[in-house]
Write a structure and sequence with these properties.
Elements (H helix, E strand, L loop, with lengths): L11 E2 L5 E10 L7 E7 L8 E4 L6 H15 L7 E5 L2 H16 L13 H16 L4 E5 L7 H13 L10 H25 L5 H10 L41 H13 L8
Parallel strand pairs: 2-5, 5-6
Antiparallel strand pairs: 1-2, 2-3, 3-4
Helix pairs in contact: 1-3, 3-5
Family: Belongs to the RNase H family.
Keywords: Endonuclease, Hydrolase, Metal-binding, Nuclease
Protein name: ribonuclease H
């Protein structure tokens, strides 16, 4: 008797139609000897994309939170649909929305002058965020209040706690993984550049050769223009149809009316001034 396969839950969407997924990290005895940490990723109830894994390497809550976000970026297929990762970790979110530019500027030193904690892991996650941006997908990190009845957050938390009970996992080589991803991105950029150069157009010599081989057929002689005769009043000439514009308004005449119209134009949010 064959086992039934789990079906993916319907994708979660926010009000803007963006794909939503939850991440969480859990650590029992955080900061103490013998602590155990797990990561959780929740797409929906019983969804096969859900993840419950043991945190590799050092067992801390912040690392588990970061790696949960990373696992989403590693496992979610690339697309152009915006992706929203919801986490209850303010630390993880601020790493990429507030602090990272300062860290880069300061050569990955914290305000204390000490190296940034989890630097290699954060740089690898940043490489994944850059990769998705380069490939046309926007990723947003949004904070959700933990343990507040949010189904997705509660689901990710439960999976993270399950992950903490699983066997230990060795630390991953974040620097090597980052280097591999950067090399892959550079290869993609080089390929697009070559393809762009090939699509610029054929060389003039090739165009001349093609034109000589396949000369254009002579155009048929045209009859002279003859005006259309009318028996009644003359018809107004028809102007070529123009594409519509987003905003139109009656033309003012007097100077006072002109000034008022100009003021109204610049303040009107419906006006398209790009042309």
């Amino acid at each position: 008797m064959s086992k039934s396969k789990k079906r993916m839950a319907p994708d979660l969407e926010d009000g803007d139609g963006r794909l939503v997924v939850y991440s969480d990290g859990a650590c029992k005895g955080n900061g103490q000897a013998g602590s155990v940490a797990g990561i959780g990723v929740w797409w929906g109830e019983g969804d096969p994309r859900n993840i419950a894994e043991r945190c590799p390497g050092d067992q801390t809550n912040n690392r588990a939170e970061l790696i949960a976000i990373l696992r989403i970026l590693e496992e979610t297929p690339q697309s152009t649909r915006p992706l929203v990762i919801k986490s209850d970790s303010i630390y993880s979110i601020k790493c990429f929305t507030e602090w990272i530019n300062g860290w880069i500027k300061n050569n990955w030193k914290a305000s204390t002058g000490l190296p940034v904690k989890n630097k290699e892991l954060i740089k690898y996650i940043k490489a994944h965020l850059d990769a998705r941006a380069q490939r046309g997908q926007k990723v947003l990190l949004e904070h959700v209040k933990g343990h507040n009845g949010d189904e997705g957050n509660e689901g990710a938390d439960g999976l993270a706690n399950v992950g903490a009970t699983l066997p230990t996992q060795p630390e991953r080589n974040w620097e090597s993984l980052e280097a591999e991803l950067h090399a892959q991105l550079e290869a993609e950029r080089a390929k697009r550049q070559v393809e762009g150069e090939q699509n610029v157009g054929e060389s003039p010599a090739k165009i001349r050769k093609t034109s000589a081989t396949n000369p254009k057929p002579k155009s048929a002689s045209r009859e002279p223009f003859k005006p259309i005769s009318t028996t009644g009043a003359p018809q107004a000439a028809v102007s070529p149809q123009r594409s519509p514009v987003r905003y139109s308004a009656p033309t003012p005449h007097g100077s006072q009316e002109l000034n008022a119209y100009a003021d109204g134009w610049t303040d009107d949010p419906a006006a398209d001034l790009s042309f």
